[in-house]
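ok so I'm stuck.
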Amino acid sequence: MKKYRLLIILIAMTVLISIPGLYLNICDRSFKHPAAAVMIHAVKNNEVQSMIPEPVAGLLGLHNSTADIPDDISAVIEASASANSLHNSNSVSSVSDNEGDGADAGAGETDDPDSETEDDDESEDDEDEDDDEDEEDDEEEEDVFPKEFTTVDDDYFKDACFLGDSRVQGLGLYSDLPAVNYGVVSMQLYKVFERKAISTPTGKVTVPEKLTMDPPYGKVYLKFGINELGWGNNGLFEEYYYTLIDYIKAVEPDATIYVMSVIHVTAAEDASSSVFNNDAINKRNEVIKEIAENEHVYYLDLNEVFTDENGCLPTEDSFDGIHIRAQAMYKWVDYLKTHAIE
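replied:
not stuck anymore, here's the structure
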């Protein structure tokens, strides 16, 4: 009887281990590894949430359906939006007032219809048309998007700031770019607004708080996505990313904003995880690219220089399958220098 009990327990344990792993294999449409091995790997790498279907995770409260944005961050974004709206309405009113002043001025002059010559009228009309054309040209120059990329040198980055995860931190350590770098190990989008990771003379603050303390930046580079692959929730990822970009627009209104893609992982890393793999990275990059287009900011596809013939990060470019070696950092730097907006 004891043998049967042990057999039943063994079968039950196998089922409990294999079913979640089978679910992950089905989601990834990949059966490279046995279901039990996939499940054990997920637990080992803190990927348990990815084993739970989104509807079930929502009921259990494991995946937030909406981003938990701090009130002060929302207030800054709303204030900026209101200010822009007021500015636009004032501009329209100013144009209308000027047109009205012109009409009133004409009516208030002498009643003699012959007091102004036709030549004067034509001259004034020509001047007005020239002014209108100049204003339209200025507006068109400001509104052009996207502008073409150009090549720059190191000086371009003197007023630049980089925000992101450990890969961005590595760029700051090994690139020698004269930029401010707020890359933080294991940083994720939902932590940006709450994690006090930047040291100041008065203590640690969040990245958004530090931006308000710094002088204005001319360029802001963002790179998030690799640590968020385990979320399994594009909607939440998008909401946080949109919020971060809107916040930066509010506190850095004159900055050119760049959104960098998620860099691929090596072939070995790609084969070892059902979540952190290049297929998932490619899908997430499509989302990031769409966010950049909708926000009218510049998308930078770093995989143009960090991908081999198999669609993976070259092994020689990484020391752990994910992070970029110091010796390969020049690829990233060269790409940024040839993809700049003046």
